Amino acid sequence: MDNWQSVLLQPSTPIIEAMGIINNGALRVGLVVDDKNCLVGIVTDGDVRRGLLQKIDIKEPVSRVMNHNPVTAKATDTRERLLNLMGAMHLEHIPLIDHQNHLVGLETLYRLAQTPKRDNLVVIMAGGLGTRLAPLTDHCPKPLLRVGAKPILEVILESFISHGFHRFLFSVNYRKGMIQDHFGDGSDWGVTISYLEENGRLGTAGSLALLPDIPQEPFFVMNGDLLTSIHFGRILDFHMEKKSVATICVRKIQQSIPYGVVRLDSHRLLGIEEKPVQEYFVNAGIYLLDPEVLAFIPPTSGIFDMPFLFQKVIESGLPTAAFPFLDYWLDIGRMGDFHQACKDYPEVFQ
Q1: Of 35, 103, 128, 159, which residue is the least packed, with the fewest Cβ within 10 Å?
Q2: Which residues are bridge partners to 192 per DSSP?
Q3: Please, are residues 247 and 319 in contact by the beta-carbon 8 Å criterion?
Q4: Spatial contact of 133 and 158, defined as CB atoms under 8 Å apart
């Protein structure tokens, strides 16, 4: 993201001063915030010109000429959503805000159009049996079940590609031939796809012991039954910024308890909270690992899941991190989840 802090203005900033900031900066826009860093408007040279035509004095505050109702986006919006919004509204830049309207960034059409090429390996776990989705999975591996017009695994693949990733490795087992036939070597998508063939259940981390070569850079590991609009590039940036060797993505969920929850001290009643809503961070099944973490995975002699790997890394004292996100996310584990994914797909991914 560009240096948007350099174009911050107060509503009281004189127009002539705002003109200097806009014209001297590469962003060609001013972001007007209040004393709580909430966005109250944006101003461009076009806004200033229109003000001059209306004979507004350049010593007047910029609030006289700014756009009081700018189009904004959420800080968690994906690159695709931002591009679609900017294209539909013919925008060259769009302020990013959080849920309290605090300004947290600025995206530009130029930057979004320049997708960086990322050489980091992406490992997708696609070998599960999917027994809870029977009979749909009786003759089809879960990653090839279609949501909308595409298999789940293809949606995941194209999401990574849109963020510049091009090296993929699918860990396969159940009906692996169907997955290999569908994706081949990845050339139809302009990427490289290779395969780890599991001979038995190895868990969400165990198959990493089969990697033919140790990656030279941090690499992703993701479950192949997830539907999400998360921005994978931002996870990588976060991982590097925090100097983490193992980063886990965590999704905030809310759980409503449909009863009055009673607080007790032995037999004495302390209070009753009616139908409380509790918030949790849950494991989203998306991980980013440094190559050195592979040393914690035992030989492939049994099931070894990702939580065990993270626990070993934590116990070693090496730095770990959690990447919280609010983007769309759905773990397609049960039939109800699959139906929900089919319902959500057109709204979230098209």
Answers
A1: 35
A2: 167
A3: no
A4: no
Q: Are 247 and 234 in contact (CB under 8 A)?
A: no
Tell me the pLDDT band of 46, cut-offs 50, 70 and 90.
confident
**Would strands 146-147 and 150-151 be described as parallel, antiparallel, or unpaired?**
antiparallel
Token output for 142: 């879960």
What angle do the packed helices 152-162 and 335-349 form, to 10 degrees?
A: 40
Instruction: Detail the DSSP E strand segments found in 44-189.
Output: 73-74, 93-97, 103-108, 118-126, 146-147, 150-151, 165-172
Residues 126-162 have pLDDT tens digits of 988 888 989 989 999 999 999 988 999 999 999 999 8
* 275 is known as an active-site residue: yes
Catalytic residue among 36, 252, 275, 343: 275
Q: Enter the tokens of residue 344.
A: 């959500």
Q: Residue with structure tokens 């004495």?
A: 268
Would you say 330 and 286 are in contact if contact means Cβ atoms under 8 Å apart? no
Parallel, antiparallel or unpaired: strands 8-9 and 30-33: parallel
